[in-house]
């Protein structure tokens, strides 16, 4: 076994852990956000079964999903110690969301067209935002900072 094989295993383990952690974060943040909507919006619980949300409720749902996507991407980048995992998280969320949001018979019929478009179009930018937050808070120093700290 070469050192390259060990690095590949560590990398694959980090990627797998990042994806698994992202799934857990998705359900935790989304669950908490939906619970807050149920508590904070009068009438939300009553309209939820029919998905007859008001405009304000639809925007609040988008805010919950947006926060969830940013959190998943940030955590995936953190667990993998690689900002590229934020993009991977966003790509996975998008790939899993497209069928539900664009195929009639799933949630397509439950929401206005603009809602689907805003949700789908925002996934990758939000994931990249999560990655940018991770990079700013925890990522490697920028190139000038590395050069400044390098011994002369």
Key terms:
6 helices; mainly alpha; 152 residues; elongated
Walk me through the structure:
This protein is mainly alpha-helical and 152 residues long. It has one domain (3-139). 79% of the residues lie in helices and 0% in strands. The protein has helices at 3-40, 44-47, 55-80, 84-102, 113-138, 143-149. Helix 1 (3-40) runs antiparallel to helix 3, helix 3 runs parallel beside helix 5 (113-138) and helix 4 (84-102) runs antiparallel to helix 5 (113-138). It is elongated, with a radius of gyration of 19 Å. 22% of the residues are buried. The model is unreliable at 142-147 (pLDDT under 50).
Provide a brief overview of the structure.
With about 150 residues, this protein is an all-alpha fold.
Mass-distribution shape: elongated
Q: In terms of per-residue confidence, which ranges show pLDDT below 50 for 5 or more consecutive residues?
A: 142-147
Query: Largest sheet, described in full?
Result: none
% residues in beta strands = under 5%
According to DSSP, the number of beta strands is: 0
Query: In percent, how helical is the residue content?
Result: over 70%
> What is the rounded Rg?
19 Å
Which SSEs are present, and which pair or pack?
Elements: H1 3-40, H2 44-47, H3 55-80, H4 84-102, H5 113-138, H6 143-149
Helix pairs in contact: 1-3, 3-4, 3-5, 4-5
